Amino acid sequence: MNATTLTLKESPTVPLEAECLSPDVIAPLRHDAIAALPVFLGKHQHRLDDFFAVEGDGGDEMVIRGDVGRVKWIGRGMTCGKITVVGHAGMHLGAYMKGGTIEVSGNAGDWVGAEMTGGTIHIHGDAGGQLGAAYRGSLAGMKGGIILVEGSAGMEIGMRMKRGILAVKGPVRDFAGLQMKGGSLFLLGGAELRTGAWMIRGTIVCGKPIPLLPTFSHACDYSPTFLRLYDRRLQERGFSLPHRLGEGDYRRYSGDSAVPGKGELLIWQPSAGVPR
Amino acid sequence: MLRIIGGKVYDPANNINGEIKDICISDGRIVSNVEGGRTIDATGMIVFPGGVDVHTHVAGAALNFARAMIPEDHRRSAPMVRTAHRRGGIGGSTPTTFVTGYLYAGMGWTTVNEAAVPILSARHTHEELRDTPIVDKTCCVLMANNEILLDLLEAGEIERARHVAAWQIWAAKAYGVKAVNPGGVAAWKWGKDAKGLFEPVPGYDKVTPAKIIAALADIVDGLGLPHPLHLHCNNLGAPGNYNTTLETMKVLEGNRAHLAHLQYHAYGGDDWFTMRSESAKIADAFNANKNLTTDAGAVLFGDTVTITADGPWQHLLYKLTGRKWGNLDVENETGCGIVPYTYKEKNLVNAVQWAVGLELLLLIDDPWRIYLTTDHPNGAAFWRYPEIIHLLMNADFRREQMKSLAPKALKRILLPELDREYTLSDIAIITSAGPARSLGLPHKGHLGIGADADVAIFNDTPDVQRMFSYPRYVIKGGEVVLEEGEIRNVVEGRGFVSRPSYDEKIEDYIRPLFQQYYTMSFDNYPVEMERLENPHIHSCKSDG
């Protein structure tokens, strides 16, 4: 079956809320029903085909073309299937997602995969802040699934995450892993300030030296074997940890003792003579 | 003009128990007969007096603080979309003001008592009550930790305390007096609590919680307020607190009092691991003390948010849950704590709490003295009352529900042994007739001639939870506000205020204290009458 293809006609002036853009909604529908799906521009309801040229007849694969950087909630709560965004994606991409795959060729906005419980999101460009985070007030952020970002990311990524994997190749901004409760956060390109602030449990792996909070204390330098397992699985997706035998080890810090927490920060330390 | 025909009427205040009877309404009152006007055919339906909530938290600074603290609750609540008759808003644990009115009226409740108002935020509370449509409102002003009053009790100036209290009630435009953890909230300002009824409150030599309770109950009765002292006892929520509650009942002998949310005050055991129900002892003592009324403060499983003036307790609850905590200090008057909370079946403590609420409702033999509440939103949101009605009316359903409790809990509770089932007439008493009587609202809670025409009409079906969740018609003050499950007519509610008498010269005593201790000037302190929507003043007859 061919994928349903949606091509943006014109970028909306204000964000378009389109939580119908999910394989769960589209899969059972024929072309005309897809075209008539409701989207919201501000408080006004419109039809999907007011903004998108619709091709195809349902099925659990969909391709969205055009700069949908102002289209919110793509893949919200999806449980299966695949969404490919050729271009940039807007805020709340894959929020509350339970399964399936989202792939974005360009950049993505804030709150990608917020409170997700399963599935995979792969962003080939940069992403915004609050990836895999808990929405304001919620006790927990992502509880499962994988988020991969090839570029950089913004603030508060992995905020209150509980399970799952979040890996960013480029640099991230402040408060990565804020109030983290579990799960694994890979910051391969380093981070700005206050990484792991208030973290209770979970693992943050950092590929570059980062400024540390005073409430993290040095525990030991070692090469945890479990990281090889992560490395192998991440390499399948084009991500690799700077974990090479004999090239260095990880400096383990525990914290955040301000909470107090039992989280760990693993910071890669190359051996002398190995270029960073 | 309106005539309701063919309905089975439950009006326990007038000894009517399921009789087929016509109800006639004119000018917002129940009358003996009407000519013309609309007729509602209530054949196959039951007719109840509108519900009265004796203890709820629906407006004011604390509630707003809670609203701001729980966006996650707002997100998971279904929004109420604006219609031609209704404003938009959201429900959940702390519904918006307008939605609070729609939800109460939407299940046939027409009068609510906002149970905790600091005088300093009374103006705000009245503004919010004004925006809570349809239902009539009363509110109770917080006094048991007011430093001006405590200082007078320390000095033994009871007569002056009485005039100050009366002045404060009128300043707050309140209806009754609330006491929360007497002395404990004042002690909380030093990081302490008042756990012993007969031990001096930290910061005082002579004032003990027992003295505060006795003095306030006496002042309230002496001033002739329609509602007795509304008391949240010391040691709320603590294992073993039933002793404090029994002692409190002794202190109250000779006065009227309403013990709020009794469920939270009926626990045995020494700690969280040995906590058990002591509802039998509490119910026995309560049954014998005819001067008291109470409300259940029942708990239902699920997410909610706890809001109380009991600051020290809320700090403990925060430490137990590790979740969010809000703490408010209200200058010389009181405090407040807010902690979001989830009651879980598998949690021993929560299971005991759930059982104790129901046990008290079943063990206290006089339904006229115990009323249905959840201490909204502390035990559960008020819109879940129909679930409790279902539990009370059906012992088999209770047994079914008990299967999901933590197995250990079954040994700590009495509920498995209780077979009593409420009748519809009992339900009409605990949801309407009883609380109206306790609040001293003679025109509420019944359908006799001259009563306010607040009527709820339900389908007569065996599924009581559904029946009480979705009334067929709700009539408020003679206006049909709900039909076919939909709010179709939004009327304004009234605000009931008490006017106790006091010596005007008492202001000369209070004024300098304001200059010295308050951030608000004396002249800006009392709430203006214009703040209230349709005020209805109850002039009190004092005994002095």
3D architecture notes:
The complex is a heterodimer of chains A (276) and B (544). Chain A has 276 residues and is mainly beta. Chain A has a domain at 107-270. Chain A is built from 3 helices and 17 strands. In chain A, the strands form 2 sheets. A 13-stranded mixed sheet of chain A has the order 5-1-6-8-9-10-11-12-13-14-17-16-15. The model of chain A has no long low-confidence stretch (mean pLDDT 94). Chain B has one domain (47-490): TIM Barrel. The longest helix of chain B is centred in the middle third of the chain and has 16 residues, at 348-363. Chain B is globular. The two termini of chain B are 44 Å apart. Chain A binds chain B through residues 135-139, and chain B through 69-73, 75, 323.
Write the layout of secondary structure elements.
The complex is a heterodimer of chains A (276) and B (544).
Chain A: E1 4-8, E2 16-17, H1 23-26, H2 31-35, E3 38-41, E4 44-47, E5 52-55, E6 61-65, E7 71-72, E8 82-86, E9 101-104, E10 120-123, E11 143-149, E12 163-168, E13 184-187, E14 203-206, E15 217-222, H3 226-235, E16 248-255, E17 263-270
Parallel strand pairs in A: 1-6, 2-7, 6-8, 8-9, 9-10, 10-11, 11-12, 12-13, 13-14, 14-17
Antiparallel strand pairs in A: 1-5, 2-3, 3-4, 15-16, 16-17
Chain B: E1 2-5, E2 8-11, E3 16-20, E4 23-26, E5 29-31, E6 38-41, E7 45-49, E8 51-56, H1 61-69, H2 71-76, E9 79-80, E10 89-90, H3 97-106, E11 109-117, H4 122-130, E12 136-142, H5 147-154, H6 158-172, E13 176-180, H7 184-188, H8 209-223, E14 229-232, H9 242-251, E15 257-259, E16 267-268, E17 276-277, H10 279-288, E18 292-295, E19 302-308, H11 311-321, E20 326-330, E21 334-343, H12 348-363, E22 370-371, H13 385-393, H14 395-402, H15 424-439, E23 455-459, H16 464-469, E24 473-476, E25 479-483, E26 486-487, E27 495-499, H17 506-517, E28 535-539
Parallel strand pairs in B: 1-6, 2-7, 8-11, 11-12, 12-13, 13-14, 14-15, 15-18, 18-22, 27-28
Antiparallel strand pairs in B: 1-4, 2-3, 4-5, 7-23, 9-10, 16-17, 19-21, 20-21, 23-24, 24-25, 25-26
Helix pairs in contact in B: 5-6, 6-8, 9-10, 10-12
